[in-house]
């Protein structure tokens, strides 16, 4: 008997399915008051009725951005069997336990309805009944609060609209589970044990999924393909999970031009802003998300740090249309906890930098994107020098004020610095290379011990500033550039510097240095002239004292008869000898050369030569004879050797020769450098002068003209 009943039910349902499409098509001819049948390219269901009010252009109070019919109907559309007042459109099926057969489906009283729904709650159902496919017109399944662990392949229920499996034991969802349900609009999987959802589980078409409930599960992460669906939907409810991470396992490329919906992530564990580039989300996509996918993350421990700030303005703009977004609050850091994100100044969204990232010891470092800078605060830390390393960021804003630094040295990280404060230190010296760094816009050197300013400071032009405060520096009239620099600062209304100059024991305003130096110019010129004159006199005196004999020989050679200093009187021409020979008579070689070569040669050429060993009277007083014969000679032949002037007689002889040579401009001296002596080996300054000026004849006689040269030199002047 039961078997016959089942056969009849099958044919009844099969017949109902065959005529379903034909019967529903009559809805176009029998409209429901206040509704219209909604057709959308991205929605497979043909049973949806949307209120006529959704066709109005509503711009206020919308749930998410957009005012098209689609964005309204995904929220307010309902299936035909709900909106219609017709009877016998939808019937109810019951589940009854039947021993070993498990559960069987029992039709309700009205078994000739177009659609059916089935409800079985708070039972021990652990699998879907195998007889579901016998009722293909089922549009609503509610198996909540049971023991179901898996969702079977029930593609036979191709017009299923609502599936409620809340409070069951499902732990994992695959991306093929729901693709067979093209008409599925509402999916409730809340209050389960779901721990993982495969990518693209809900992101499929053809389909009709619009309302997804996944709250109160055990999800720790969610793939972006299950949030940013490629079609318009009402909401995805993920509140009260443990989500702290977002993924894009498939490196999915998002196109959100015709999609959007509400995403609820209330009461999760979201604290850090995700790495959007790693998730494949570019700035245009993020901007689109802000307007198309309002995300509610209330009651999350959000860390309001620098990673949030770059997207703050876009989300602030989008939040004007979404009330929920305006209530988001910070969970961290402590000083921002509980404050609404969009009411916080962008300057407070910072990220602390640790010593691991090269923040100097005992300093505070943080990144501040709102001002495009990384702040390094080392004020009042008793630092004696600038550190050698800093965090590897651009836009460094360094504060080393109130320390003990004495030298401002160049560091490579200064090339990445925009501002540095070194006020209230003990700086005396500034590295000139610092002024040439193009990225530094401000240097504060107030309240230091600076006494010199390098001219490279002129490289700070336009809006770049270097602040010295009120200082006195040592200046000179060559520093007129400082006046030009200060005048340019005044044109920019810069009041950072009041510089005075200590110049010539006077303190003046540096900006008037040109006027001061103009007044002092005449005095300086006289001083320079006197200085030059004194220098000339000094040099002349030194030259005279050290080289007076050389000067005398040069002047005598220029034949200056009126040079009174060297020509005090004129002697008569001697008549006894033409040449007086002076040499060391104890030197055998010289004596032999003079007796056998020099004297005979000169006498053959008409010279009367006085040869002391030959012409002096034996037994006479030698000194008297030297004085007499030198005075009676016209010229003098001196044979210079290492042992010349060794005896006192030779010294007397040479002194008398020089005295008569100076007293009479007509007398000549011919010096033969017998031992080829260098001037440094000669002590007598007069003989040294002859050698220095090359007024001697070398004994080497390389050109065989020694005697000819001697005869020419010894001829008396006329």
TrEMBL record:
UniProt cross-references to InterPro entries, sorted A to Z: Cys-rich_flank_reg_C (IPR000483), Leu-rich_rpt (IPR001611), Leu-rich_rpt_typical-subtyp (IPR003591), LRR_dom_sf (IPR032675), TIR_dom (IPR000157), Toll_tir_struct_dom_sf (IPR035897)
SMART domains, alphabetized: LRR_TYP (SM00369), LRRCT (SM00082)
Entry-linked SUPFAM superfamilies: L domain-like, Toll/Interleukin receptor TIR domain
GO molecular function: signaling receptor activity
Superkingdom of the organism of origin: Eukaryota
GO cellular component labels: plasma membrane
Ranges of residues in domain TIR: 575-698
TM regions (residue ranges): 526-546
Signal sequence, start to end: 1-22
Membrane-related topology note: Single-pass type I membrane protein
Cited Pfam families: LRR_8 (PF13855), TIR_2 (PF13676)
Main localization, broad class: membrane
Subcellular location: Membrane
Record GO biological process: signal transduction
Keywords per UniProt: Glycoprotein, Leucine-rich repeat, Membrane, Receptor, Repeat, Signal, Transmembrane, Transmembrane helix
Coiled coil: none
Similarity comment: Belongs to the Toll-like receptor family.
Protein name stated in the entry: TIR domain-containing protein
Record organism: Mytilus galloprovincialis (Mediterranean mussel)
Lineage summary: Eukaryota, Metazoa, Spiralia, Lophotrochozoa, Mollusca
């Amino acid at each position: 008997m039961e078997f016959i009943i089942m056969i009849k039910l099958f044919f009844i349902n099969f017949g109902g399915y065959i005529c379903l499409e034909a019967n529903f098509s009559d809805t176009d001819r029998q409209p429901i008051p206040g509704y219209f049948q909604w057709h959308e390219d991205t929605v497979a269901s043909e049973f949806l009725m949307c209120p006529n009010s959704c066709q109005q252009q509503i711009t206020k109070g919308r749930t998410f951005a957009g005012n098209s019919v689609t964005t309204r109907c995904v929220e307010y559309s309902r299936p035909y069997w709900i909106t219609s007042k017709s009877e016998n459109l939808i019937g109810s099926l019951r589940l009854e336990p039947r021993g070993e057969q498990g559960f069987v489906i029992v039709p309700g009283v009205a078994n000739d309805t177009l659609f059916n729904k089935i409800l079985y709650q708070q039972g021990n159902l652990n699998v879907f009944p195998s007889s579901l496919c016998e009722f293909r017109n089922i549009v609503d399944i509610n198996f909540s609060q049971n023991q179901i662990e898996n969702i079977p392949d029930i593609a036979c229920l191709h017009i299923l609209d609502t599936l409620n499996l809340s409070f069951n034991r499902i732990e994992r969802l695959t991306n093929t589970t729901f693709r067979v349900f093209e008409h599925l609009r509402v999916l409730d999987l809340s209050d389960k044990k779901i721990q993982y959802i495969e990518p693209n589980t809900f992101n499929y078409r053809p389909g009709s999924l619009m309302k997804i409930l996944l709250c109160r599960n055990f999800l720790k992460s969610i793939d972006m393909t299950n949030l940013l669906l490629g079609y318009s939907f009402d909401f995805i409810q993920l509140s009260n999970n443990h989500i702290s991470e977002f993924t894009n396992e498939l490196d999915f490329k998002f196109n959100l031009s015709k999609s959007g919906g509400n995403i609820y992530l209330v009461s999760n564990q979201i604290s850090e802003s995700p790495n959007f580039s790693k998730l494949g989300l570019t700035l245009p996509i993020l901007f689109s998300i802000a307007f198309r996918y309002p995300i509610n993350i209330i009651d999350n421990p959000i860390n309001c740090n620098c990673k949030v700030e770059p997207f703050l303005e876009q989300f602030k703009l989008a939040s004007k249309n979404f009330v929920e977004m305006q209530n988001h609050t910070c969970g961290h850091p402590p000083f921002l906890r509980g404050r609404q994100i969009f009411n916080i100044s962008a300057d407070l969204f910072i990220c602390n930098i640790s010593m691991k990232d090269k923040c100097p010891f005992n300093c505070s470092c943080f990144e501040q994107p709102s001002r495009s800078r990384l702040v390094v605060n080392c004020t009042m830390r008793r630092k004696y020098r600038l550190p050698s390393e800093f965090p590897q960021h651009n836009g460094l804003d360094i504060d080393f004020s109130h320390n003990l630094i004495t030298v401002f040295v160049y560091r490579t990280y200064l090339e990445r610095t925009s501002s540095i404060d070194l006020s209230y230190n003990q700086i005396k010296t500034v590295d000139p290379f610092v002024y040439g760094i193009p990225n530094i816009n401000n240097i504060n050197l107030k309240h230091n011990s600076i006494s010199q300013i390098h001219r490279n400071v002129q490289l700070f032009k336009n809006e770049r500033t270097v602040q010295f405060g009120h200082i006195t520096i040592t200046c000179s009239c060559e520093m007129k550039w400082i006046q030009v620099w200060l005048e340019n600062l005044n044109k920019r209304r810069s009041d950072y510097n009041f510089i005075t100059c200590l110049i010539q024991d006077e303190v003046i305003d540096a900006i008037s240095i040109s006027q001061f130096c103009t007044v002092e110019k005449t005095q300086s010129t006289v001083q320079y002239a006197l200085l030059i004159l004194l220098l000339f006199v000094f040099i002349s005196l030194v030259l005279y004292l050290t080289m007076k004999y050389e000067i005398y020989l040069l002047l005598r050679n220029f034949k200056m008869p009126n040079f009174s200093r060297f020509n005090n009187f004129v002697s008569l021409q001697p008549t006894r000898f033409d040449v007086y020979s002076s040499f060391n008579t104890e030197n055998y070689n010289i004596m032999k050369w003079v007796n056998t070569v020099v004297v005979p040669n000169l006498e053959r050429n008409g010279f009367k030569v006085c040869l002391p060993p030959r012409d002096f009277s034996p037994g006479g007083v030698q000194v008297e004879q030297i004085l007499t014969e030198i005075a009676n000679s016209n010229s003098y032949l001196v044979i210079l050797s290492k042992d010349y002037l060794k005896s006192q007689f030779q010294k007397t002889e040479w002194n008398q020769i020089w005295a008569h040579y100076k007293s009479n401009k007509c007398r000549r001296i011919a010096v033969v450098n017998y031992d080829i002596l260098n001037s440094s080996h000669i002590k007598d300054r007069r003989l040294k002068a002859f050698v220095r000026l090359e007024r001697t004849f070398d004994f080497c006689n390389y050109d065989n003209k020694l005697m000819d040269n001697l005869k020419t030199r010894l001829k008396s002047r006329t």
